[in-house]
């Protein structure tokens, strides 16, 4: 299973989420159609840009709680000091993808970023 983890600024547009996802898919050498779900922090449940992007791609959104993201943090490939200070994890996109993909998940590449969204793709058997 492939999980696209999304991090974003408040009020992100669906277009920005889709741009970040496309960028991550290219960096990981995977086709967007092979992604099975979008994951993000449960705190982002109200972000319409994420839910709208998922709907356009016909993908479910997996909401990941903070504790699961913290447990997945050791697998992150990048770190943002700002995100670490605010969220307690090095990257929302990377840790959400890893946590949602399950035990033994791995990132296919470091997260990619646009001005308002980040995306990381994880592969795992448990997703």
Question: How would you characterize this protein structure?
Answer:
The chain is α/β, with parallel strands linked by helices. The protein has one domain (2-123): CobE/GbiG C-terminal domain (Nucleotidyltransferase, domain 5). It has helices at residues 14-28, 48-57, 66-72, 81-87, 92-101, and strands at 2-8, 37-41, 61-64, 106-107, 112-113, 117-123. The N and C termini lie close together (6 Å).
Keywords:
Nucleotidyltransferase, domain 5, single chain, alpha/beta, globular, 127 residues
Mean pLDDT: 95
Low-confidence parts, pLDDT < 50 over ≥5 residues? none
Number of helical segments?
5
As for the CATH topology, it is Nucleotidyltransferase, domain 5
The CATH homologous superfamily name equals CobE/GbiG C-terminal domain
Q: What's the helical proportion of residues?
A: 25-40%
Please identify the structural class as seen in this structure.
Answer: alpha/beta
So, CATH architecture? 2-Layer Sandwich
Describe the global form. globular
Broad CATH class: Alpha Beta
Radius of gyration: 12 Å
Record field, number of beta strands: 6
* Span of the ends, CA to CA: 6 Å
Which oligomeric form is depicted? single chain
H-E order: EHEHEHHHEEE
Characterize this entry briefly.
This protein is of the alpha/beta class. The protein is built from 5 helices and 6 strands; from the N terminus they run βαβαβαααβββ. The chain is 39% helix and 21% strand.
């Amino acid at each position: 299973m492939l999980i696209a983890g999304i991090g974003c600024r408040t009020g992100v547009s669906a277009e920005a989420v889709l741009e970040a996802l496309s960028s991550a898919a290219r960096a990981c050498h995977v086709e967007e159609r092979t992604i099975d779900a979008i994951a993000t922090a449960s705190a982002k449940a109200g972000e319409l840009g994420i839910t709208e992007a998922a709907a356009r791609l016909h993908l479910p959104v997996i909401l990941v709680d903070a504790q699961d993201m913290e447990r997945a943090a050791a697998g992150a490939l990048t770190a943002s000091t700002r995100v670490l200070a605010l969220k307690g994890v090095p990257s929302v996109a990377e840790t959400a993808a890893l946590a949602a993909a399950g035990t033994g998940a791995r990132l296919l590449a470091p997260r990619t970023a646009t001005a308002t969204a980040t995306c990381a793709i994880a592969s795992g058997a448990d997703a």
